[in-house]
Design brief:
Chains A, B: One of its GO terms (biological process) is pyridoxine biosynthetic process. Two copies of one chain form a homodimer. The first copy, chain A, is of the alpha+beta class. Chain A has four helices and nine strands.
C-alpha cells in the first residue's frame, strides 16, 4: 500500500535528519494550511517520524488549535523543512488526515494511542493545559496537573498524518533542486518521478 | 503613515534578531501563500529589513517564481519565523504588495531600486539565472554571467512588502504567548492591541 516501494526522496530526507540531528531544532518544520476565511496560516510543528514503514509524516497537535479548523476547511498542507546545518530545504505537500479521539477507524485510533505513548510525559501534559489562544487569566503559570503515565490519550490529543504527493528538494550548497511528483498506479500505489530543475 | 508610532511587537522582533544574529540562518523565515488551485504553499525566504521606519517587512524574490502567481491570486501571506537560539516564534500575517519593474508607482520603483542595490553582487546574479523550476538541461552549472555593479534591477527582480496586520508571538522558554492585533484609526494609522493568551 505505497509502503512496498520506498519513496526516492525519503532517503534524502533521512540523510538530512541524520546530518542535522545534533541540533535541537532539526525536527522543527513549518506547516502551512488555509484558514476558513481562505487566508494562509503557518506555524512551527515537530516531526514525529513516519507512519510505520510508509512515507507518511506524523505530527502531534492539540485538537483545540486553529490548525484543526483549517484542516477541516481544507485537508491539505505544505511542510517547509529547512535544515540549518546542511542548507537543505524540503517542501512536502499532500492531504492531511486528522485523527482525534472521535475517529471511527480502529486502526487510526491505534495510531493515536501509539503516538501518545511515544510522547514524553512532559509533552503529554501540554494537552491538559488551558485552551490555546484563550486569554491568559492568571499571572502565575497554571499548577502542573498530575498525569498517570499509563493512561491513554486525553481528549485534546490529536495526530496529523500527511501523505506526501509532491516533494521539492533544494540544496543551497550544491545549488541543486529536485522535484519529486507522485501518481497512483492501478493498485493505488504511489509511483514517484524525480525531475532535476533550475533552483 | 503608520510609521509615526512604533508597533509594540517590533522591538520584541528586533531583540530576537539581535540575540540570534550570530547564526547564519537567523534571517530565514517561511512564507505561506495560497496557490491559484487554493492549496497552501510554503517556502523559506530571507528577511531584507523593514521599509524605512515602518513595520512593513521587505523580501526579495524572483518574478518568475510561483509565489508571484500565488500572490496575484491572493495578495496575503503568513510568515512563520522561528529563532533557534532563543526559542521564539513570530507569526506575522498581512497583505503583500508585489513590486516588479512594471509597477506604475514611482515611489515603489524607487524601493525596488534601493532593494536591488542593497543586495550583494552574488545575490543579484541569481536573477539572471535560468528560469526557476524549469527542467535543468545541463549537467554543468551555467556559466556565471557578468554583471555591471552600477546597472539597476533586472526584469526578474521583484520586491515583496508585507504589511503586518497581526503578530502572534510565542516564547518556548518562558511559555508565554502574546497576540498583537491591529486596526486602522480615522487617519488610517495602525493601532495595535496586545493580548496575553494561553500558549
Amino acid at each position: 500500500m505505497g509502503s512496498s516501494s520506498a519513496a526516492p526522496w525519503k532517503q534524502l530526507l533521512l540523510n538530512s535528519i541524520q546530518a542535522n540531528s545534533h541540533l535541537k531544532h532539526y525536527s522543527y518544520f513549518q506547516l502551512a494550511t488555509v484558514a476558513p476565511n481562505n487566508t494562509p496560516s503557518n506555524r512551527t510543528v515537530v516531526f514525529r517520524g513516519f507512519q510505520d514503514e510508509s512515507d507518511r509524516i506524523l505530527i502531534n497537535t492539540d485538537a483545540r488549535s486553529r490548525k484543526i479548523d483549517d484542516l477541516k476547511h481544507l485537508p491539505f498542507s505544505e511542510i517547509c523543512w529547512y535544515f540549518t546545518e546542511t542548507w537543505e530545504q524540503f517542501r512536502i505537500s499532500g492531504p492531511v488526515d486528522v485523527i482525534d479521539g472521535t475517529n471511527p477507524d480502529p486502526f487510526k485510533l491505534q495510531q493515536r494511542e501509539k503516538s501518545w505513548f511515544a510522547c514524553s510525559l512532559r509533552s503529554r501534559l501540554q494537552y491538559m493545559a488551558p485552551t490555546p489562544r484563550l486569554p491568559s487569566l492568571s499571572e502565575q503559570p497554571s499548577p502542573i496537573p498530575s498525569l498517570d503515565p499509563s493512561i491513554g490519550p486525553v481528549a485534546a490529543f490529536c495526530v496529523l498524518v500527511l501523505d506526501p504527493q509532491q516533494v521539492d528538494y533544494l540544496n543551497l550548497k550544491s545549488n541543486e533542486r529536485l522535484i519529486f511528483t507522485s501518481e497512483l498506479n492501478d493498485d493505488r500505489e504511489k509511483l514517484w518521478t524525480p525531475e532535476k530543475v533550475n533552483p
